[in-house]
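Okay, can you check this protein?
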Amino acid sequence: MAYYRPYHPPADPELVRRLSQQQTDMRQQQRLEPLAQPPRLIAGLDSSFPTEDTILSVIVVLKYPELELVEKVYHHGPVDMPYVPGFLSFREAPNLLLAYQKLQHRPDVLMVDGHGYAHPRRMGIAAHIGVLLDMPSLGVAKQVLTGQHPEPVPEAGSTAPLTDKKTGELIGEVLRTKDRVLPVFVSPGHRMDQPTATALAWACTRGYKLPEPTRLADKWAANFKAEVR
């Protein structure tokens, strides 16, 4: 069976240059460091594109470590930024910020469905939104974007390093969240280090592949999609 794949024209070289420079500038602000204290509230952030030119961003806030739902919000709006591989964060971040402004409870940590440091320019959506809000953030992604890694052992809780193919730099960790299920890819975004990011992702896992913050954000996205239709 053939599947429809939307056509994306080649990116404007000047746009790519400008976005690359913005990521370079943002990286100068990025800090990878341990959390000063454990979070009390942790947010899960997820974005999807109901149509080619609209975006739906969902944020859930959970108590930590209980992982009880405190609040859920969403924002649905147009996308002005064209699709450019490696720069998806520029399409997602503005709408996520609008959703964030609707929160009544301010989280201590942002867990984003996507990559943080494990990005070709170390500035995935988790790093991007963390720097913009100057908040501790981490990314939990379902697929690898860049780097190489051995396979973690089959048991839940096992990890393996995700490293840059050229330099060998550690850019993330591969975390098996459920026995014999494909792993997730965890990396810090901003104001967090790799050990803290991996520990938080594992601590938020409750028998599913995805940690609860991003799993619930994805779950509520399906409900909110019905509303925006």
